Each structure stands twice: as C-alpha cells, then as structure tokens.
Fold:
Amino acid sequence: MRITVREPSDPLCPQPGVPEETLATRLARRRERLAHSSPSAGDAAYRYPIMAALVPVATSRGGEVAYPGDPMCLYAALSLNIARSVGRRTAGLPAEPDLDDVYPDWGVYPDDEYRRAAGGRRQGLIADNPTTDGKVFDPRVWDEQARERYVAEVKALRPEVVLLSAVSAGHRYALEMAELAKRHAPGCLVILGGRHTDETLRYNQASKSVDLAWCGTVEVIGDGRFEPVVDFLVSGDGAPGLDLLLQAVALCAGPEAGRTPVREIVDALCLIARERDELVGAATIVGLEADEAIVVPVLGRRLSSAEICSPYEAFSIRSRFDVFGGTGLGSRTAHMMTLDSCPFKCTFCSESIQVSNRPTRFAVSETEHVASRVRQLMSWGAEAVFFDDPVFWGGNWKAVIDFCHDLSAQRAADPADGPLEWGAQLTVDVVLNRAKWAQVKAGLDLMRESGCTYIYIGIESMADQVMAHVGKNLLRRNPEPWVGKVREALQTIKAHGIRVGSSVLFGLDGEDRNTIEETIEQIGRLIDDNLLIMASPNILTYHPGTAITAAHGQDRLDYHSRKQNRPPYTYFEEAYPEVVSQLLTEDDIWYIHETSAKRWGTVRNSAAEPLSEAAVS
Structure:
C-alpha cells in the first residue's frame, strides 16, 4: 500500500479547468442541495445516523477476566463532536450556511432522572434511545450472543458512520465488527481509534513521515491480511481529531445514498483545516483507499482544560467498583484522568510518555478545575471516583495537596454534597520520595481527609533479579532492596488510613520459575500482614512501541487473526498465546494461575471465580 502524507496546508488538486472551491461556496451549495432534496423533512434532513462501539477483548462469559477495553478513551474521544451536535440540534438551523448545517444524530444529553436510573449494561436498541448515552454499543464480551446483538443494532439503525475504539487485544474483534458493519449497513463509513491505533500509528514531524507497526490496521489491510473494512483511523488527540473528521464527512453529505469516496472526505478535511483561524489538538488522521493510505497530520494548539468537557457529559455513570462502598455490589464509580500518559519510563508499559508521546491532560495548576469536575460527577450520580492516571497528578505532591485542599473546600461550601470515596494510582518511589517526605506525609493525610480510601500500586515483581531490568526502582542514590521498599510504601499508606491494592506482572526480563515463586510468596506475606486488600496477577503482554517489545524482537505481533482464546490465558487481562512474554511457557502460566490463587486466596483479583460486572470497570 502506498503511503501519501497530505499536509492540511497543501493546495487542493481540482480537475483541470475547474477553479478551486472555497469553503463558503461549498457550504452554500450543500445548503441549497439539501433544502431542495427534502423540503418537508425539516431539521431531520440535516442529521445522519451514527453509532459508536467499545470493542471488547474477552470471548466468553464465565471463568475469564472480562477486560472491558477502554471506555473512557472512547467517551473522551466523542465528547467534542457530541457537544457540537447537541448544540446544533438545540439551536436549530443557522440563518446562513454553516459548517454545522449537517451533523451526526447523537441525540440529546441524558437528564438527571435518566442518569439516576441508569446502571449496569445498556438495554434496548440504539435506534430507540434518544439520548447520547444510548448511542454506544458496549458488549464487554465478544461471543455469538454479542455478535447477534451488534448485527441487530446495525440493521435497526442503518448508521452512515460507525466508530470503533479498541485496545490492542481487541483489534481482531474491531476488524470483525467493521466487516459486519459494512455487510449489514452497505455504504457506511467505518472509523477506528483507541489505544491500539495510538500505539501503531505515529506521525514523525521532523521527517514528515509516518511510522506504522506491522500489527496496525494500515499494514494489516495493506498487505492483505484482512479485508479493507476500515475507512479512516484517528490517533493522538482523539476528540479534536475525530471532530474535524466528522465535520469533513458532513461537508460531503448529500441527498444521494451511497458511500462517499475517502479521497473526497480527505479533500473536505483539508479545506476545513486550511480555512480555520487555528487548528486544535495533535492528531494523525489516515484515510484508506484501495491501494493508498492518505496521512493527514493535524498539529494544532493544545486544548485547555476549560475547552474539554467531561466525558460523562454525554454518558451515564454505569460501572461499579467493589473496592468502594463496603458491599459486594460496590459503589457507582466514575473514572477520571489528569494525565494522558505516564511521566515514567517502565520498559513494559504502553502508557509511558516514551510510547504515547502525549502531554498531560491537566496542568498541575488546574487542581481547582479537577475538583469541580469531581463534584459535577457526584451531581450525576457518582458515589465514588477513581483516577485512572498511571500516576496520580504525575507524582507531583504539591498538585496532590492542592487538589485535596480544593476538593475539601468546595465540598464544605455545599452542605448538599453527599458522601464520596475516591481512589488513585501511585508508585512505590512516589510514596517513598525522601526528598519531599514532609509533602508525602501531608499529601497522604489530606488524601484521606478528602475522601481517598484506596490506592493502587504496580508492584510488578518482588524479585530484585527482575526489577533490575524494569526501570521502575528509580530512587537509587542509596540503593535499597525492592522487597523492603514495597513493604515500607504499603506500611506508609496504611498508616494514613488508606487501603492498598496492587498489580503483579510476570514475564519481565530476568523472570524464571524461581522468581515467580519468590514473587508469589512475598506478595502472600504482604497479604498475611494485611498490607494488601487486592492483588491482581498479570502476564506480560507485548504492546507495540514498548522497550521490552523491541528488546525481545517482537515486531510482528498477531493482533488481527480471528481466535477463540483459551485457558490459562483467559485467566489474565489481555493475554493471548502469541503475544505474551517469550520468557514464560504455558506451564509457567498455569503455575502462576494456580499457585497465586492458592497462596493469595480471596485477595486475588482473579477469574478463578468469574468477575461480576461490578468488578470490571
């Protein structure tokens, strides 16, 4: 497949003898065309059906860790375009031809009654739900039942655009969902984004070229490993990138049914971008033609927090997290992020700044704004909030302290505020920052006082032989054994009245059966001493772009073949036979599953007993 980079500033290429069309004349021509095609349809003539889907990675409903994908990634990516659509629907057709004359039919924002009643999985057809919350298909598991539901949704709605969000482990199912959309809604446009696209598609501004991973959609379709069922990909800042692309799709809208050529949409996108006063966000948009991938880099101004609406503006809070609430069901939990990437450089992590190359979402000076977001989530029915950042506020203790002060002050000023629990992720080294020990202790006290009851820490391994290779044991001015540091960090957090859960990762460099046994036993001792309330065993899964993937020579990861996963891999998030650590045999993985279940008991977050939906968030 030929790769062509098309800068938005590049001149368009009209047919010989035909003058280049301005955006104003294009808008006027579209308004006239649509007005004459359906004069009695009113505003409905200017809307087109659209649906989004969160692509799952699990393939069965029992005995498997049902990793749900990345819902907040999808919600955040949709936020700007949904806000534009709802605003246009409320305001009505502008007096003069406008870029937003034609818009996707996302429906209306859910009201308070809908938000309070919503819980668990969405019920009914997308076509029958008038709210923005109802426009997402979220099956959590990809099996025959989910496949039939998805086809029924597509047939009922007949969407003109289908948006898919996938992590790497779900990419194979994203391709199948795209294929089904093309089959049952002929002419629809399929747009794929999410973390897999971010990991496999990057624009290199210095060389004005694009870096494509072998397991990415462009290469998979380009060399014929899968049918050409995806029309566009969006990587980077999903919200402004997708919003721009959907405006281009709408600019090409007309009364005629049928598929709009990708190249025509790319032309429209460049026309819009060229005539804007400024571009926002940094995204890479790729249009796929039969034998060409057209890459459009969008390098605009970073959006401020005030310009980014909450992902939950359009969606109900549905997940429940059983570490909150004190009951088996768990509290209704909203998810937030203050970071788009982790500031640290662990060799295995796809969220590292080295891999994602994306800026922080909120500046450390925006703690007051984040606190107000938390209270907004409470007004929408959140009983708990979990910060999904790899490291809360990037490990900046001043920002943590400022946030806790702001949250407590805002809540104290409103007696109507109900109870709130919240949790976040930290690292051992952030907790044991000796240079800022006074700030650490003050920060942990304030976290607890403002409602924090749970901290999640990535321990990864308890074997120094393994941790020497990870890039995680960072504070080495006075080297300390990792096992002792982990215990001290957990004791420090517990002393401030906060519970701790942890992830453990098997298969890193230096791993062997002895280190596996050592880690399982040492984690067991932390559980025995009531320092951990939850321990989640994981198998190293290779992600495109990480240091360990490159070091292990895994440049051809199979994230596209149709497979039914099987034990013991199904007992771990994202684990598939061809993409897990080459340092582990299948016998090792069975050993990890069985031994950790026995040693850690009910503290293990495991598929030994299938997770309820409450535990999958």
The chain is about 35% helix and 15% strand.
